Amino acid sequence: MKTDDDAIQIALTAVADWADKEGPLLPVLHQVQERIGHVPDSVVPEIARALNLSRAEVHGVVTYYHHFRSEPAGRCVVQVCRAEACQSMGADALLAHARWRGVCTERNPTSADGRYTVEPVYCLGLCASSPAAMVNGVPHARLSARHLDQLMDAQA
Predict the structure, then answer these.
(1) What 3-state DSSP class applies to 70?
(2) Mean pLDDT score across all residues of the chain
(3) Taking 90 as the threshold, does the pLDDT of residue 118 lie above it?
(4) Mean pLDDT of 32-61
(5) Which are the contacts of 90, defined by CB distance < 8 A and separation ≥ 6?
(6) Distance CA 39, CA 31 (A)
(7) 91: closest CA among 19, 140, 58?
(8) Partners of 79 in the beta sheet?
(9) Contact, 62 vs 112, CB < 8 A?
């Protein structure tokens, strides 16, 4: 785990890498999350100051886009598709099962032991092979609860 000082240095490096480009906020946030695994609250004021934005603007972007996290994710990140095609093929039940299996809730998507993060996402582009989910960034289609259990066990 990175300290606040480490995280701030990573954020300032990202700002330096993107500051001369148009619209640098999203690339900066992506770079921070890629390096740290999330966008800690401690870096928001530093990014805002460096890009001449308000803290509210930076915080708003972090909280608006589901890709960004303000807390570390679990070792196994399960993202269950919630688009219409997947819903029609049982994605709601699959999401509920993944949450139950990972001991996660909608309010607390990461398990207390840090093993799992379970999140809904909207359209993975696997509509013809639904229900679908991504497990640690790898897409899986035509999922059953049993198959998802195997994937989760292998990743956590």
Answers:
(1) coil
(2) 93
(3) yes
(4) 96
(5) 131
(6) 9
(7) 140
(8) 119, 134
(9) no
The percent of residues above 90 in pLDDT, for the chain, comes to 87
Mark whether 53 and 82 lie in a shared domain.
no
Provide CB contacts within 8 A for 59, sequence distance 6+: 44
Judge whether 29 lies within some domain: yes
* 57 and 81 housed in the same domain: no
Q: How far apart are CA 119 and CA 125, in angstroms?
A: 16
Which domain covers residue 42, as residue numbers?
4-64
pTM, entire model: 0.79
pLDDT digits (tens, 9 = 90+) for 120-133: 999 999 999 999 99
- The Cα–Cα gap between 103 and 78 comes to 12
CA quadruple 79, 84, 89, 92: dihedral positive or negative? positive
